[in-house]
Amino acid sequence: MYKIVSSRGGGRTTTLCEYAINNEKNIVTPTLSSAKYILGMIHNSLKQQELNIIEEKSVSYGFYIIWEDHKENSHQIDIIVASKKDLTGLYFGNCVVDDADEVLKMLVRENLKQNVVGLTMSME
Predict the structure, then answer these.
(1) Using N-to-C axis directions, what is the helix angle for 12-23 and 32-48, rounded to 10°?
(2) Going by C-beta distance under 8 Å and a sequence separation of 6 or more, which residues neighbour residue 33?
(3) How far apart are the C-alpha atoms of 95 and 64, rounded to whole Å?
């Protein structure tokens, strides 16, 4: 498992977005505002790499973006918002998680209708 551990403002989300682009991984994020921020980061990164964005769209679970690499192969990343009311049956695929503790809280709150008051995580 690929892990990014750093203090606030340490560039975790930027690193995560670059990893997702380079490895074509979906991104799970806690809120719509964080998904929009990540979409903007991905958009800027693809433009800096002079990659052609084919489609960028808002959908029920968040967003997706499709682009072509320099060999004209198409790639797609889905940005899944954990706070969306109904993610039942949605396959996250190979994904990376931004703000994992907040995503877990949202998934538990929205899908199990329980409020998370504590959380433990290992630092392997």
Answers:
(1) 60
(2) none
(3) 13
Residues of the chain with pLDDT under 70: 1-10, 85-89, 109-124
Which residues are registered as beta bridge partners of 27?
79, 96
Q: Is the pTM of this model over 0.85?
A: no
Q: Estimate to the nearest angstrom the gap between the alpha carbon of 69 and the chain centroid.
A: 20
The structure tokens listed for 99 are 């703000």
C-alpha span between 49 and 100 (Å, rounded): 28
Say how far apart CA 85 and CA 61 lie, in whole Å.
Answer: 9
Query: How do residues 73-107 score in pLDDT, each as one tens digit?
Result: 999 999 999 887 666 667 777 888 888 778 877 77
